[in-house]
Amino acid sequence: MAGALSHIRVLDLSRVLAGPWASQLLGDLGAEIIKIERPGSGDDTRAWGPPFLQDAEGQDTRDAAYFLCANRNKQSVTVDFTKPEGQALVRDLARQSDVVLENFKVGGLAQYGLDYESLAAINPRLIYCSITGFGQTGPYAERAGYDFLIQGMGGLMSITGRRDGEAGAGPQKVGVALTDVMTGLYASNAIMAALLHREKSGQGQYIDLALLDVQVASLANQTMNYLTTGRAPQRMGNAHPNIVPYQDFPTQDGAMILAVGNDSQFAKLAIVAGHPDWALMPEFATNRARVEHRAAFVEAFTAVSVTRTTKDWIAALEAAGVPCGPINTLAQVFADPQVQARDTRITLPHAAGVDVALVANPIRMSATPPEYRSAPPTLGQHTKAVLADTLGLDDAAIELLVAKGVV
């Protein structure tokens, strides 16, 4: 069956991660994605390597692994829209599109007549989503924003890292560009909501998404801990501010994670650990008490955790119904039988003559599951096809645009 969004065309002017992450999700759900890139260089992330995808001869291509993570199910069309002819091409594509997605600086596309007001005038049903670091309003609106910067400004790094006073303490960013990824997810949700609204109203609308807004919103319980008490949460390493035990513990041969979410699970943990009395002690019997006596419990359990191997602990705790697990490397992740059973790793044939390994979309739908139609494209791979099939240009017109450096 066709994907849930197979009737939708997205004109993607975005680059790097937040915008491409959103459009890849829409593409996985069936939408046609036309990715506009700069002639000669394309999306910045094509050069963000090594590592780079290798062709059939084992030579590096021009596409970094970074680019591959967010650009499947897309058609790459090169257009220089600093030139009038390029602007006309993008406007013609926007006229026939349902969604425009962009992440230029505030006002950056207005000089080319590619801003929301200009494109909505020729396509009132258009959904136009702008992603910026700080949004379209406010004193920081003109600033450029990158994920690392926003993780710092948005509070995430104030609660990530080892506790103050411990060796290696200090603010720490997350190991992936999480703010970009979250912004991409919010963007795709907003776009689909706007499309549903358009079905009722017939009208498009403008979406203003800011990385900083998303970062603050994504702090979840930590934000509410602060708003409720007026006390700023502190870095706690791998510990949880509201649950104990919910962290890593050393074992005889490494480490494991405990994620005890209620007092019943704690009672089972106490039995497996050989200390059923813990579940009866006033300072450990309830989660509230354990949070208040965190240091005492961590010390007590650590003395026990180091006496068994990680494998032994996990076998015993899983049998008792206590949530736990190892701390895997990526090699161990993709070797995990659960990950394999869920078909998390997929491959698609690439224009470089090789199959490229990718991570599957985690959405599982019974009627309209995600589709994997095409690998991330090479730069300009679909330029002539889109200009001919979508805009109806003949070979002579296309060759003239190529000769002028427009595409």
From TrEMBL:
Q: Which UniProt keywords apply?
A: Transferase
In the record, which residues are listed under signal peptide?
A: none
GO molecular function term, any single one: CoA-transferase activity
Q: What is this protein called?
A: CoA transferase
What species is this protein from?
Acidisoma silvae
